[in-house]
Amino acid sequence: MPAAKTAAPSPPDADSCKAFGNILxxxxxxxxxxxxxxxxxxxxxxxxxxxxxxxxxxxxLTLTLRGLERDGLVKRTPFATVPPRVDYELxxxxxxxxxxxEQLAAWVGTHRAAVEEARRAFDRQ
Amino acid sequence: MPAAKTAAPSPPDADSCKAFGNILxxxxxxxxxxxxxxxxxxxxxxxxxxxxxxxxxxxxLTLTLRGLERDGLVKRTPFATVPPRVDYELxxxxxxxxxxxEQLAAWVGTHRAAVEEARRAFDRQ
DNA sequence: CAGGATCCATTGGGATACTG
DNA sequence: CAGTATCCCAATGGATCCTG
Lengths: 125, 125
What we know:
The structure is a homodimer. Chain A contains 5 helices and 3 strands. Chain A is mainly α. Chain A binds a DNA duplex through helix 4.
């Protein structure tokens, strides 16, 4: 997704398009959505998240959380105990994203069957 | 986030989680979002779309449109003219997805600066 | 013009092992 | 427990050439 170096053509959105895709790549990422969903109701520890999110690997969860932290959507709080413990929670910015994601989730819930049916129909021929 | 509601580790979401991620992978994909945005106001031809969506390659646009067609979100209409012409347009199902995507787009518009600032702050240390 | 098909570099992401 | 590092294969996606 390293966006194009396309010479700047005229359209006014050439560059907002890039910025847009940039943010969207983070925000629309599968694990990102899952993590934000998981943190919706409050802080969670790393392992709790991993157990909650079926199928995420240790590595991917780490990377996803790093990305979210970098983007200011998630706050990381390490405790100096032993064994170590780290809590993750949504920042206000992270919370502000929830309605949009929930609407998306609702759409999937409502139309998932239709999509799956369309796929079957399409594949049948 | 299968159940996105409660952090309660309810067991039975292993598989809805997968289905969910499945649809989300299509729907949250960068080019998919762009294409739906491009088709929001009516049918468009292949090349028009490619010109509109900065940075998409011929191949990726083809694949994205195929995927959307398969999922029943986009309707493909070939004309038997020469040179050939193909129109793409959103189906009702495709249109039903717009509000959700527009809300996401609105979020990006509103918070893009904040995210970029967060990134700079994070990278600075 | 639309869209296969092929080639190929790059990346993503799982598995595993190690550290504080 | 949380996080890092390494290995390594599979998928991704751009470039290019070919067809109706």
